[in-house]
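User: Show me a protein chain along with its predicted structure.
Assistant: Here is one chain, sequence first, then structure tokens.
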Amino acid sequence: MKPWKALSRKVHQHSKYRKILDVLFELPDGRQETYSLAHEGRAVCVLALTPDRQVILARQFRPGPGILVDELPGGAVDEGESWEAAVRRELLEETGFAPQTLIPLGRFLESAYSTIERHGFLALGCERVAGQELDPTEFIEIVLKPLPDFLAQIRAGLCTDCEVAWAALHEAGIVKSTSL
């Protein structure tokens, strides 16, 4: 199987924070179909743990599910900024915490219909070093959650970036792989 051939691309600025990319593809059987993709840039996401293994979360209202969500800190990578610099900046801005150790987990695909390039991290030994410095549209309450409560939350599907959370928990040795 070969990748589909993109015949044309058109970006639509749908709102201040959302772009849609319409791509006209030639399918393997010769037909042409347009696919609309969430057109997003580069982003980071971090599972941050305090020295006593509390999970640092950002409680925010999320318009998609329409609820308050305790989620992993993260956000956009600025032009010319490294992945590591972006995750340190986002964690500090959203929570005021800084890590002793930062472990890259790699790239995570958002969905089959998104162009985002999102990288996950595990941050260990996080200490509060500053106050929050939120963007004008960010309204974040910092939550420190015990690991058992966070595991229950992600098992219930009540967290964005769950795949980053699971990978980080595995990397930290908190959850283990088992063979069937």
